[in-house]
Input
Amino acid sequence: MPLNRPALSLGTGPRGVQHARRWVVATFRDIDRDDLVECAEMAVSELVTNALLHGAPPIQVRVRGTREHPRVEVSDGSQEPPALPSYPPDLAAIDDFHLDGLDDMLLTFGRGLSIVARASDAWGAEIEDDGKTVWFTPSSQFSEDAGTPGIVTGTPGASEPTGEHPADPERFRLLGVPVRDYVSFHNHFRELRREVRLLAMANEDDYPLARDLAEVFTRLGRPLTLGTVRDEVDRAQSRGQSSTDLDVLMGRDEARGIARFIDLLALTDAFAREEKMLALARSARQVAFQTWLLGELVHQAEGAEPLPWSEPAEARDRDRDTGTGTGTTTATRRASVS
Output
């Protein structure tokens, strides 16, 4: 059963650690994972303390993943990556670990992330353009050794590509792109890529396709999320435009490979409907728009002229009535008559 509960937002005061600890304990008990409560409580206390001392607002706590593989995430507005522990903490001090006094102890002594490493089966940090998320999958037993190594992904200040282009790029024209739908696509893409990347790092044995999916999503989706494309969409939004034309620079072979990306999006929809992934399946409108957007790149790579977006009534009506289904796009209509 996927977990996608509303985040807990925290203030900047020390009481945030206590609030986060109680909230995470209640959540794990609510999903009948009492076996993970102690380690989840230890680790989230440390991460929230670090966020309060060294991070930046907004600070939020989430429990995500699935009941079988729950993941705790602590996000803040700083891109500064956490300092990974280089040696185990004092075991004698750990023996004196009392959760009732954890707030004061952590704030006073600052044990770093060694506690997180010892309380987790997997953990790491995801650096993004709007801050960072430090995550962990709690263990059922606190480790007596140095614990699990952490993994930091992303680069401060450059978590999203801002100007990288392939050698000998070609210019692909996307005409009449609805701004709202592109923003929805961009957010959905980021969330989906992030989810498969974390699944690959934390639970690869249970999700063997996750690593391959993460690599393909990053490689094939990169040209569509370049800073230059996002900047043009932002300018259109600021001018109050409902649509805009976009230029996407990418290699012709790379554009042909987008056909695989379309198939992967459909596959992740199927996984989402079977509750094998946290990400939600796309709506009919999202399917219609993304099939046109990506299909245009494939068709233009084969020499076809650009065709503008034409909103399909079928997708609009299904979105209004059910929120599900598959629409017909300009790209699919072109395929049907070619």
